Amino acid sequence: MSKESSRRTFIKKSAIAGTAAMVLPTFIPASAFGANDRINAAVLGINGRGKSHIQGFMAQKDVEITTLCDPDLNLLTPAQKAFKEKYGKDVGIEQDLKKVFDNKDIDVVSLATPNHWHALATIWACQAGKDVYVEKPGSHNISEGRRMIEAAEKYDRIVQHGVQLRSSPAVQEAIELMRDGYIGRVYMARGLVFRMRGDIGIKGTSPVPDGLDYDLWTGPAPKVPFTRDLVHYNWHWHWDYGNGDVGNQGIHETDLCMWGLDVGFPTKITSMGGKYLWNDSKQVPEVLTSIYNYPEENKIIQFEVRPWYTNAEDGATVGNIFYGDKGYLVVDGYDKYKTFLGNDRTPGKSGDDGGEAASGMDRGAGGTDGHFTNFIEAVRKHDKSILNGPVETAHLSSGLAHLGNIAYRLGRVLDFDPKSEKFVNDPEADAMLTREYRPGFEVPDKV
């Protein structure tokens, strides 16, 4: 099976809404850009992954970053200077993302904001006629993911999800091997997130720093007194803003689990874990094990989050393992795989994109630059069908993490209906499929 047919099969099978499958959009030959026309880009959120977004855009031919946007001027001002020093070009800065969307000279935006902003910013950008690269997780809750799909369709926009391993030739080869039966009938996938998340302490409240628009940073989430327990990175570990590591690093792995097994949402979910190490301000579990069952497909996903002081599993600490009735396949990180066949674990085929980076994030052709290349190609051709990480993947891979978190927080096994995207006779669980939004920052019930 070719890479393209494999990708189309996954999207058609997985993106279910109501009673009908989401059909891939047809090719649209018209484009706003000629082959050599410049695309103007803006990067929203520049503290973490935004730095890689800047690199990803600037590595593309005839793409120019014209604006950096962040609610914190303490980040923006030095970033503007660093951009000038690195690229020899001036770049504008803006605190308010709405002004970026209103700027008719900006063609595409990338979103590296905190999770609670991803869906609303994507919807606003689509409404403003911008194409979007959105960092993982695409959504903060399941309802938001469906709204993102609706916005991309209604406003005919290109939306790429930041799961860069989908642009790795080695990972694509691994998927093709499994589709072709190399390890037999693949019945189980494991997702691994063994990363160090240390004690972040309890910092308490403090005055809002000069230069930070904290109201804008808070956006759709409930507004609480300012604390360094949230701003800038530690929001990941608080439910109103982040989704824990299964919804952070883990989205790469939830995405690959579903892609490799060729499944959508499960029908039965259970999770267990907790905080066992540090008495800090984190709300999310430090250790979490989630099980996602697919009785009709006779498949299962196991997902595990635990700190880095642990053993690797066939060399993988962040990655995936797929089990078939003839062997198993290990994806280590973002750009390499290996296989083992039979009871004696005979080494089989393997692949590696090559290259190294200190972060381990952007090695080889499967890194961020390659994923941005795919995005820009789709933008130029105005062809959603060639995206490696289309908006449907943002909904599904993020949604799998959300389902596991809901099961953990409620402390019971949950039954889920993938067609309706609701739980079965469980209003308490259904209430966690969305959230209450602050006035002026509402994600609509329907786009």
TrEMBL record:
Cited InterPro entries: Gfo/Idh/MocA-like_OxRdtase_N (IPR000683), Gfo/Idh/MocA_oxidrdct_glycsds (IPR050463), Gfo/Idh/MocA_OxRdtase_bact_C (IPR043906), NAD(P)-bd_dom_sf (IPR036291), TAT_signal (IPR006311)
Gfo/Idh/MocA-like oxidoreductase bacterial type C-terminal domain: residues covered: 205-257, 371-441
Signal sequence coordinates: 1-32
Superkingdom of this protein's organism: Bacteria
Gene3D superfamilies assigned to the protein according to its UniProt record, in alphabetical order: Dihydrodipicolinate Reductase, domain 2 (3.30.360.10), NAD(P)-binding Rossmann-like Domain (3.40.50.720)
The keyword Transcription is assigned to this record: no
Record keywords: Signal
Sequence ranges assigned to domain Gfo/Idh/MocA-like oxidoreductase N-terminal in this UniProt record: 39-162
SUPFAM superfamilies, per the entry: Glyceraldehyde-3-phosphate dehydrogenase-like, C-terminal domain (SSF55347), NAD(P)-binding Rossmann-fold domains (SSF51735)
GO MF term set: nucleotide binding
A Pfam family this chain is assigned to: GFO_IDH_MocA_C2
Region Disordered: start-end pairs: 344-368
Annotated PROSITE patterns: TAT
UniProt protein name: Predicted dehydrogenase
